[in-house]
Specification:
The complex is a heterodimer of chains A (about 775) and B (about 160). Chain A is an alpha+beta fold. Helix content of chain A is about 30%, strand content about 25%. A seven-stranded mixed beta sheet of chain A has the order 3-5-1-12-9-10-11, sandwiched between helices. Chain A starts with 15 loop residues before the first helix and ends with a helix. Chain B has a five-stranded mixed beta sheet with strand order 2-1-5-3-4, covered by helices on one side. The chains are: A alpha+beta (about 775), B alpha+beta (about 160). The interface between A and B is large, with 56 and 54 residues.
């Protein structure tokens, strides 16, 4: 790559000094004059008709300024897709899970708001409910939505090649079923919304979000006000992991409370509300049948996957598809059939999560290990033989323009000493490998692309204006890094205005891992546009053609005669005095197939490019307690090009904590009749510093042909591969394949005991 | 319930507070004094986001009644830097990329400060143990541990 000042360097992030000093403001930190506190009344029933809601007593309580029910809203049904519009933000007819929003109040303080909730009388008629997929799918099961017979919400079918013929030609075929319960995002920042109407009657709203424009549009629809009257404003965000992607009832409720009370309102969810009334990850039952030839190359694969979606569609079509798509991107599969079903149950709503489908992904990988064992091929070699290669098409017809899958396997294997360790570790020690691939953005309709603007100040500094949002991963820094690099500026010369829907242009949002690729390209193009204008003016002053000029250290030079230069500030002043425009504009629309659709047409270019990752994990299991000690984890990902290596390492390490350490060892939601039994931090076990192993990071660069400087998604392939590597390592350590995740001590002990019993029985025969 | 009057010493300044005695230190800091650098995440003493230093020791301000903080030296994240000069722990967290979303950072940094004050040469294990009451969901802790290790006298040996 070229000689860069900032790109490719582990520069300090611009947003972290404010975060280190406590000055960064998150939504719940906001305090506005005359602000009220909002609280939500939730359903105590999993499934019940709403007969009547009486708010008269609550309204009369001194200090209460607004009480809202469905009557105060337009009661439209909302959904991410036209065909998934099934959720009212405050329901009119019935509630479908314990914790569903029924009414809300705004009062002068929290105690008054809580007291007011107790004065709202709701008359329900309880209905029979279904709490698991098996019951929901039985004939005669209570229908959660009348227009969805059998409680099937979404069915995605992909059928490529000839699966039956493939199995016929296979040397070895096996089928296994893998299961996993729901898991939780547990972002550090509890969900919080602040809303007010400004002096022009426009809504100003702050909330954790992964895409301000994705929040503004549904708010405009629900509030029946034009989009330019909704301003989602920039604020620091305490993590997303897929869980801040779509509009939340909290956003809408807070906006309605502010409208009705004509005062600013703050609504902060408790930790319990964060567990039940924001999204969760889907539970899953995945049956995977795979046929291979003698060399272990997959010939045919048939996957049926059921996902518990909870009460409403949410991002259902995407959630059903993505676990499969990640695997078809990572591994070659010529004959493949996928049937993914999302099932409605009377439980909280499920959405997208950083680790898409533990049961699914771990199933595919663990089954490769099992097949390899039958054929005498080790897991790393099984992956090398099936790895995706550059220039190939995925089964659903996405061209793979850059791919370092094989390199990540080889480099991770070497660093983790795979060949020295596989099959040679002491008893109850194990090593496992997982591979995955993640798409960098997918067709998202009108908000698929990103735009950016750059404006200059007379002393040579710039303001970059973009819709890109930063949930904590470092996007703010990425924007500044790119703009400063292109224009030969220092970081301190760049002012950033981003993630504010009133002033910043459209952007897909920071999910589906697209901001570096799509938003970063837009910023780079805007900077190049501005640079071209600057060079034109400078070329007149320096009497050289623009091609001969370069920008660095706030000056424009003649490249071959660096002593001949003009300062950027002078060029800008010349432009201003001539009334010439020197602002920059950039726009990037990823080259994807806009006709591709999740359910109707799952075929065509899904994403312009894909990341590829490998994780290898080494563990020691205590056979007495079932406790797993993770000794070392090695993560390798093809990130295209590392714009800021230390930021990428941080993403890898966080992914291992969430996908592997938490996702595979300790994180799951417990239920009793549709109620979450562990909605709090004491009972939902996220990893702590003492739990985490030593981590080796390997950044693989393939220089994507279209990414900014060759960059693409960084970190998410690791989060997913980590789950698979952990599961493989533990199964390797105990010599038993456990197919129910996460691998908690009880399951590990049971598996060990069962194995010992079988051995004992064999011995006594 | 009757309101009480008490004096709090926060970041070397004295504050006269008139409040109900059932309120937590966290509520007073955030809602009354607008010191919002102290965060609330779990609200039950499990995550450490609301950590402040009480006479130099890390405590969870969500579990502490404000009356229990009377007569103590309270340090919040806003009081760690001296003017424009950041505390070395803050500098090290920035330098080592130990901050991602930043929600846990105030509590984590204060816990680290207290650890180093009481044990200037902690081992990696001691660091991990000391910060295990502070949950970080973004970083996987590796860079946080590195940032603290860089300040350990042991790390400089």
């Amino acid at each position: 790559m070229g000689d860069f000042s900032l790109i490719g360097k582990s520069m300090k992030r611009i947003d972290t000094p404010l975060k280190a000093t406590g000055q960064a403001q998150f939504s719940s930190d906001l305090m506005l004059p005359r602000m009220l506190i909002g609280k939500v009344l939730r359903s105590p029933y999993a499934h019940a008709k709403i007969l009547e809601i009486d708010i008269s007593k609550a309204e009369k309580l001194p200090g209460v300024k607004a009480v809202i029910t469905a009557k105060d809203t337009c009661a439209d049904k909302w959904g991410v897709f036209r065909y998934t519009q099934d959720q009212q933000f405050l329901p009119t007819d019935k509630v479908r899970y314990v914790g569903e929003e029924v009414a809300a109040v705004a009062a002068v303080d929290e105690d008054t708001a809580i007291q007011a909730l107790k004065l709202i009388k709701v008359e329900y008629e309880e209905l029979p409910a279904v709490f698991d997929m098996k019951s929901a799918l039985e004939s005669g099961a209570p229908l959660i939505h009348q227009d969805h017979p059998g409680n099937i919400n979404i069915h995605v079918n992909i059928d490529v090649g000839d699966v039956a013929k493939g199995f016929g030609e296979s040397y070895y075929v096996r089928e296994d079923t893998f299961t996993a319960p729901e898991d939780s995002y547990f972002q550090g920042e509890p969900y919080a919304v602040v809303a007010q109407y400004d002096h022009t009657g426009s809504l100003e709203i702050w909330m954790p979000n992964a895409g301000p424009h994705l929040k503004a549009k549904p708010l405009s629809n629900v509030l029946k006000i034009p989009l330019n009257k909704v301003r989602v404003r920039k604020i620091a965000i305490g993590g997303a992991f897929g869980g801040r992607s779509e509009i939340s009832p909290a956003d809408v409720i807070c906006a309605f409370l502010a409208r009705k009370s004509q005062r600013p309102v703050k609504l902060v969810y408790t930790r319990e509300e964060n567990s039940i009334a924001t999204r969760q990850a889907h539970s899953m039952i995945a049956t995977i049948k795979t046929g291979v030839n003698k060399e272990g190359r997959v010939i045919s694969r048939d996957i049926t996957c059921h996902m518990d979606g909870g009460a409403y569609s949410s991002t259902g079509p995407i959630a059903v598809s993505v676990p499969f798509l990640c695997m078809e991107q990572a591994y070659q599969m010529d004959n493949i059939r996928y049937n993914g079903y999302r099932v409605f149950t009377n439980k909280p709503i499920r959405g997208m999560f950083r680790t898409h489908g533990r049961a699914f992904a771990c199933g595919v990988d663990l089954q490769l290990d099992m097949i390899g064992q039958e054929l005498g091929i080790n897991p790393l070699e099984m992956r090398l033989r099936n790895a995706r290669k550059v220039g190939e098409f995925t089964p659903t017809k996405s061209y793979v323009a850059s791919c370092g899958m094989t390199e990540t396997i080889l480099k991770a294997g070497e660093k983790a000493s795979w060949n020295e360790k596989w099959g040679k570790l002491p008893p109850y020690h194990g090593i496992g490998i997982g591979c995955n691939s993640v798409q960098t953005g997918f067709p998202m309709g009108i908000r698929g692309g990103s735009q950016a603007f750059i404006k200059f100040n007379e002393e040579g500094g710039i303001t970059v204006i973009t819709g890109i949002v930063d949930n904590g991963q470092g996007n703010d820094n990425m924007i500044v890094q790119i703009a400063a690099e292109e224009l030969g500026l220092g970081v301190c010369d760049v002012q950033l205005v981003n993630a504010d829907t009133e002033v910043t242009p459209s952007d897909p949002g920071s999910y589906s891992m697209c901001e570096t690729f799509i938003g970063g390209n837009a910023v780079r193009l805007a900077a190049q546009d501005a640079k071209n204008k600057l060079l034109k003016i400078a070329s007149e002053a320096l009497k050289a053609s623009p091609d001969e000029l370069t920008v660095k250290d706030r000056k424009i030079y003649i490249e071959k005669s660096p002593d001949k230069s003009i300062s950027l500030s002078k060029v800008i002043r010349i432009a201003l005095s001539r009334s010439e425009s020197i602002s920059g504009e950039g726009s990037y629309w990823p080259k994807v197939d806009s006709k591709r659709e999740w359910v109707e047409n799952p075929s065509g270019q899904l994403s312009e490019t894909f990341s590829f990752g490998t994780v290898i994990t080494e563990v020691k299991v205590d056979p007495e307690t079932g406790k797993v000690d993770v000794l070392e984890v090695t993560a390798a990902q093809d990130v295209g090009y590392a714009l800021n290596p230390k930021v990428i390492e941080g993403q890898f390490e966080g992914g291992i904590a969430m996908g592997g350490q938490g996702g595979m060892l300790s994180e799951y939601i417990l239920w009793y009749n549709g109620r979450v039994l562990n909605p709090d931090q004491l009972d939902y076990m996220v990893p702590l510093a003492i739990d985490m192993p030593r981590i080796n990071n390997i950044i693989v660069e393939t220089i994507d042909p279209n990414g900014p400087y060759g960059a693409k998604e960084a970190g998410m392939s690791i989060a997913m591969s980590a789950a698979q590597a952990y599961c493989g390592a533990i199964c390797n350590a105990i010599g038993v394949d456990i197919k129910e995740f996460p691998l908690t001590p009880d399951k590990i002990l049971n598996a060990i005991e069962k194995k010992q019993k079988v051995k004992g029985d064999e011995g006594s025969e | 319930m009757k309101k009480i009057t008490l004096t709090l010493k926060i970041n070397d300044e004295k504050y006269e507070i008139i409040t109900y005695p059932n309120r937590t230190l966290l509520e007073i800091l955030r809602d009354d004094l607008l010191l919002t650098g102290t965060k609330e995440s779990c609200g039950e003493g499990a995550c450490g986001a609301c950590t402040v230093l009480l006479d130099g020791l890390p405590v969870r301000s969500c579990l502490l009644l404000v009356t229990e903080a009377k007569d103590c030296e309270i340090t919040t994240i806003e009081g760690l830097a001296k003017g424009e000069k950041l505390d070395p722990v803050q500098e090290s967290f920035i330098e080592h990329h130990a901050i991602q979303c930043g929600f846990c950072s105030p509590g984590m940094i204060l816990t680290a400060r207290s650890l180093l004050n009481h044990n200037p040469a902690p081992t990696e294990e001691e660091i991990r143990f000391a910060i295990s009451g502070n949950v970080c969901r973004c970083t996987g802790y590796a860079k946080i541990v590195e940032a603290i290790q860089a300040l350990s006298n042991r790390g400089r040996e």
